[in-house]
Amino acid sequence: MEDRRELDAMAQCKMQNADRKMQNRINLSEWLLDFAASSIKLTVKLKRTAIGRYMANQLMRAASSSGANYEEARGAESKADFIHKLQLVLKELREALYWLKLVERSGLILGNELKTLLDEANELIKIVAKSVITAKVKGK
């Protein structure tokens, strides 16, 4: 009887861990979607000059493709495919961070909204970078 309880407790623990992992994936997916949406809203505030349009397009492309690539990673066909697509997410997030820094440095947009996006980009980069490292270690 005691063995059965232990097995039930272990099974419940495994189910909770699986649920937590799924929730974390969904949360990251939503966070990337929110990051892309916030980046798009920021680009609307850029002046409609050649420079403003160029930077807006680059930021929009990088910020939105990070989330799209994450969704592709979630449906990867193999561990190697998953790692590759996660690395693409990281690459696009780093590029989005670059464009956000350039917007800030050039003085095109100042303020809290830009700082919030810079902070989010840095946090997302840390999370995805750690995920890439973890996936590579587990893949060996």
Structure at a glance:
This protein is mainly α. It has helices at 2-44, 50-74, 79-106, 112-139. It is built from 4 helices and no strands.
The third-level CATH topology is de novo design (two linked rop proteins)
Count of the domains:
1
CATH superfamily: 23S rRNA-intervening sequence
Radius of gyration: 19 Å
Molecular structure report:
About 7% of the residues have low confidence. Helix content is 89%, strand content 0%. It contains 4 helices and no strands. The chain is elongated, with a radius of gyration of 19 Å. The longest helix has 43 residues. Helix 1 packs antiparallel against helix 2 and helix 2 runs antiparallel to helix 3. The chain has a single domain, classed as Up-down Bundle (de novo design (two linked rop proteins)). With 140 residues, the chain is mainly α.
Strand-helix topology:
Layout: H1 2-44, H2 50-74, H3 79-106, H4 112-139
What distinguishing features does this structure have?
140 residues; de novo design (two linked rop proteins)
